[in-house]
Design goal:
The chain has about 625 residues and is α+β, with helices and mostly antiparallel strands. It is about 30% helix and about 25% strand. The chain contains 19 helices and 29 strands. One of its GO terms (cellular component) is DNA-directed RNA polymerase complex.
Length: about 625
């Protein structure tokens, strides 16, 4: 029983003691929009997110000759003309004018030296458009009517491994695939066919063998083999051949020769499987080399090109070992050589086999091959092929994983790439191929696509930011055209910036965008519910006709994050849900829920917020688990 401020006794009938106070239920909306505008932050202290991020992405704008450049300096929001209540009365929009300070710099290029010198620089503050403001209740007043932008629950950018045959009743063979989904840019799919050949599809176009993509990244055949397979060194001796003893790789292998110590005592008999006990004996005896026959290396392959004393290659990498090759090496006085350690029991040679059948040999050929698949019928030159490939995955303007995507890729592939690296790196692709091959061999698991760790919330600020980006990109095109057509020296920044595309984008967002809705004003509770709703529909989300049963279902990771009960009946069931009371959304857009820590078998009052990904590492008890004093 608690007493409120005016001494009214309030009875509490809950069975679970409340440890955390009720949060601000519309903080999701208010915080997201505050991050977008950064209204009360001085321009030099603004973080690179929201409007600041979009302006920095689109600016500077250069003309086609690179003789003039329009740079972004800062933006400011003026005071709104009317208050929210006045806007409702006057049936107008509650909005503030957005002004942007830009600098137009003109250059003179010396024809002989190609050096640039500044001719003129003009700085001006330009009015762009009116941007609607959020009321204290987390709503917008558009043409005198209160509207709410519903949060969207969409598939997080990142990497996903799945089984294409999952859900089918009769499966002869599992076909595994991986997909790298960026926030903006081309999708890239890796897939196995029925013959264990791994292919890549870029933007769901025609498939390319995965080794072509690896070669386009600058890896040659030797590097690819060295990346995915270990090597063993074989030495020629007077009695035959020996290989280096590696305690890590030896367990489970069979050796066709006896292994003896210096006194001649047999440590491991011929054709016996080497166990942990046998390894211990070998280490204790100080064994450095293990005698082998040709049968032990018959199904392996040369790891690196082998050259004779004059530098002529006598055996290429990836060549199967045979008696003929061994004789050739002996004849040329080769003392030792490296082979790929492909063990028939624990690993297989899928990637090596793809390499062997791949007709593309150099990086240049690989780039041209990719260009032909993506742009069939167009004449391919090495320069255009290189530009296309770089723009696909390595250009920040065309490809953006976002910090979330980078975080997900780092976690899944066990990488340490900085979160600011929002384009793909060659390492990402190399590791994706490795993990997918491991999944096929049963050494790793596929992802659960409906887990909340793979879905994130796009709140109102992020949704509007994406719309503003589209408007600014359209504006960029008109600015470039104006720069090239008119005499640039006589123009001011005001003459160049045409804000119509931007204001049209913002109007479209609040007026006709699928997730911008009239606020439900039936009662105060339905208002709050409307603002805490999560929708899987909308642009970049699901389609209610195509959404299957699994997506709509309640998942274990929803516990404490999404209400399992509140969802509409009918075609939208499971696609429109609500946040739970104590759930909050972290900086990456993942839903977090509070947990009480258990220390020494006692439940403490320490509260930790965890996302669905983080809680995988802990054992979670349900909230209504019986506790004693």
């Amino acid at each position: 029983m608690t007493k409120s401020s005016n001494s009214i006794e309030r009875l509490n009938f809950s069975k679970i003691r409340q440890v955390v106070d009720l949060p601000d239920l519309i903080e999701v909306q208010k915080e997201s929009y505050a991050q977008l505008l950064q209204e009360h932050v001085p321009s030099h202290e603004r973080l690179e997110k929201g409007l600041e991020q979009v302006f920095r992405e689109v600016f500077p704008i250069t003309d086609f000759n690179e003789t003039s450049i329009l740079e972004y300096v800062s933006y400011a929001l003026d005071k709104a003309k009317y208050t929210a209540s006045e806007a409702i009365q006057r049936k107008t929009t509650y909005a503030a004018p957005l002004r942007v300070k830009v600098r137009l710099v003109n250059y003179d290029i010396d024809e002989e030296t190609n050096e640039k010198s500044v001719l003129s620089a003009k700085e001006a503050e330009v009015y762009l458009c009116d941007i609607p403001l959020m009321t204290e209740r987390g709503t917008f007043v558009i043409n005198g009517v209160e509207r709410v932008v519903v949060n969207q629950l969409h598939r997080s950018p990142g990497i996903f491994f799945e089984d294409a045959t999952a859900g089918k009743s009769v499966v002869e063979k599992h076909l595994y695939s991986a997909r790298i989904i960026p926030y903006r840019g081309s999708w890239i799919d890796f897939e196995f066919d029925a013959k264990n050949v791994m292919y890549v599809r870029i933007d769901k176009k025609r498939k390319i063998p995965v080794t072509v993509l690896l070669k386009a990244l600058g890896l040659d055949e030797q590097k690819i083999l060295g990346t995915y397979y270990g090597t063993e060194t074989i030495h020629f001796t007077d009695d035959g051949m020996v290989k280096d003893f590696d305690p890590e790789k030896i367990i489970g292998r069979r050796n066709s020769c006896e292994i003896k110590d210096e006194t001649g005592e047999i440590l491991v008999k011929a054709n016996y499987k080497i166990t942990k006990a046998a390894r211990k004996r070998l280490v204790k005896a100080g064994i450095q080399y293990i005698p082998i026959n040709i049968e032990d290396i018959e199904e392996t392959y040369i790891a690196e090109d082998i050259a004779d004393q004059e530098g002529e290659i006598i055996a290429e990498s990836n060549t199967p070992i045979s008696e003929e090759i061994l004789e050739r090496l002996k004849d040329n006085d080769i003392e030792s050589f490296k082979v790929l350690s492909i063990d028939r029991q624990s690993s297989d040679s899928a990637i090596r086999d793809i390499l062997a059948s791949d007709k593309v040999k150099t990086q240049e050929e690989a780039l041209l091959e990719i260009y032909k698949k993506l742009r069939p019928g167009e004449p391919a030159t090495l320069e255009t092929a290189q530009n296309l490939f770089d723009n696909l995955f390595f250009n920040e303007k065309r490809y953006d994983l976002s910090r979330v995507g980078r975080l997900k890729i780092n976690k899944r592939l066990k990488l340490n790439t900085p979160l600011d690296t929002t384009t793909l790196t060659p390492e990402d692709i190399v590791e994706t191929v490795r993990v997918l091959d491991n999944i096929r061999q049963g050494l790793d698991k596929v992802d659960d696509i409906d887990h909340l760790g793979h879905r994130r919330v796009r709140a109102v600020g992020e949704q509007l930011q994406n719309h503003i980006r589209i408007g600014l990109t359209r504006m960029e095109k008109t600015v470039k055209e104006r720069m090239s057509i008119q005499d640039i020296e006589e123009l001011s920044p005001q003459d160049l910036l045409n804000a119509k595309p931007l204001s049209a984008s913002i109007k479209e967002f609040f007026g006709s965008y699928q997730l911008s809705q009239f606020m439900d004003q039936t009662n105060p509770l339905s208002e709050v519910t409307n603002k805490r709703r999560l929708s899987a529909l909308g642009p970049g989300g699901l389609n209610r006709e195509r959404a299957g049963f699994e997506v709509r279902d309640v998942h274990t990771s929803h516990y404490g994050r999404i209400c399992p009960i509140e969802t509409p009946e009918g075609p939208n069931i499971g696609l429109i849900t609500s946040l739970t009371t104590f759930a909050r959304i972290n900086e990456f857009g993942f839903i977090e829920t509070p947990y009480r820590k258990v220390e020494n078998n006692r439940v403490t009052d320490d509260v930790v917020y965890m996302s669905a990904i983080e809680e995988e590492d802990f054992c979670i008890a349900q909230a209504n688990a019986p506790l004693d004093e």
